[in-house]
Automatic annotation (TrEMBL):
Keyword set includes RNA-binding: yes
Record's function text: RNA helicase.
Keywords carried by this UniProt record: ATP-binding, Helicase, Hydrolase, Nucleotide-binding, Ribosome biogenesis, RNA-binding, rRNA processing
Full-sequence portion shown in this chain: 1 to 221 of 545
Family to which the UniProt record says this protein belongs: Belongs to the DEAD box helicase family.
Domain topic, free-text comment: The Q motif is unique to and characteristic of the DEAD box family of RNA helicases and controls ATP binding and hydrolysis.
Taxonomic classification: Eukaryota, Fungi, Fungi incertae sedis, Cryptomycota, Cryptomycota incertae sedis
An MF annotation (GO) of this entry: hydrolase activity
DEAD-box RNA helicase Q domain: residues covered: 7-35
Protein name: ATP-dependent RNA helicase
Organism of derivation: Rozella allomycis (strain CSF55)
Annotated GO biological process: assembly of large subunit precursor of preribosome; maturation of LSU-rRNA
Domain Helicase ATP-binding: 38-215
Residue ranges of the motif Q motif: 7-35
Cellular compartments per GO CC: 90S preribosome; nucleolus; nucleoplasm; preribosome, large subunit precursor
Length: 221
């Protein structure tokens, strides 16, 4: 599938490590949704992003997550700086792979925490290696927050991302996600990404986001 692209990534102020990864992937131009989302999410704004599947939403949040976390002066391995919530294990794994690629040559620890894996194994790897960026599904995130509450610290959380929000709602995660939001610091940036918006998602936006910039890219390609 040919992807529709807009301006060059060079029009945005990005770290050297992010530029290197983009070059390695041969990504030179942003997709339209990236071109609008990146400058907003990289500044201090919450974003609601609606655009169709395959339009490049993943990098619209992975790049800001990496840039924002990398920009922090001091943190420990057990400081959770960013949480990316996916509706399914498969999506979380895909997002994890992209996030790991962009975290190369940084000192950020990225963890993939999803159901289907023995919870004790996840607890062990979190206690052993920490977790600055968690790519996760709602149930597993909740369990890890409980089981590692004496170790993982969320008070420095900078970025929260809901990926495929329509699917999160469809799969019945609305109340779990709301409970999770209730346990996270309010001073943070939050992004919500979805192919479609409905009333339940708007409810989630009210609970989890603050004055979000609403981005709706309906390109015709
Ligand atoms: P979405 O989350 O909107 O469904 P993805 O983020 O999964 O879309 O991106 C779809 C595909 O486009 C992926 O294979 C991704 O690697 C590719 N892609 C994303 N951004 C770019 C870009 N700027 N240049 C070229 N390919 C890109
Ligand atoms: Mg996606």
């Amino acid at each position: 599938m040919k992807i529709n692209t807009a301006e060059s990534f060079d029009t945005i102020d990005l770290s050297e490590t992010t530029r290197k990864t983009l070059n390695a992937l041969n990504f030179t131009r942003m997709t339209p949704v990236q071109a609008v989302t990146l400058p907003n999410f990289l500044s201090n704004k919450d974003v609601v992003v609606q655009s169709k599947t395959g339009s490049g939403k993943t990098l619209s949040f992975v790049i800001p997550v990496i840039e924002i976390c990398q920009g922090l002066k001091s943190f420990m391995l057990n400081d959770v700086l960013a949480v990316i919530i996916s509706p399914t294990r498969e999506l979380a794994k895909q997002t994890y792979d992209v996030t790991v690629k962009f975290s190369e040559n940084t000192n950020l620890v990225v963890q993939c925490l999803i159901g289907g894996v023995d919870i004790q194994a996840d607890v062990k790897k979190v206690r052993e290696f920490g977790g600055n960026i968690l790519v996760t599904t709602p149930g597993r995130l909740w369990d890890i927050m409980e089981k590692c509450s004496d170790f993982l610290l969320f008070k420095k959380l900078e970025v929260l991302v809901f990926d495929e929000a329509d699917k999160l709602i469809q799969m019945g995660f609305q109340s779990k996600v709301t409970e999770i939001i209730g346990k996270l610091p309010k001073q943070r940036r939050t992004g919500l990404f979805s192919a479609t918006l409905n009333d339940s998602i708007k409810e989630l936006i009210k609970v989890g986001l603050r004055n979000p910039v609403k981005i709706n890219v309906t390109d015709s390609h």
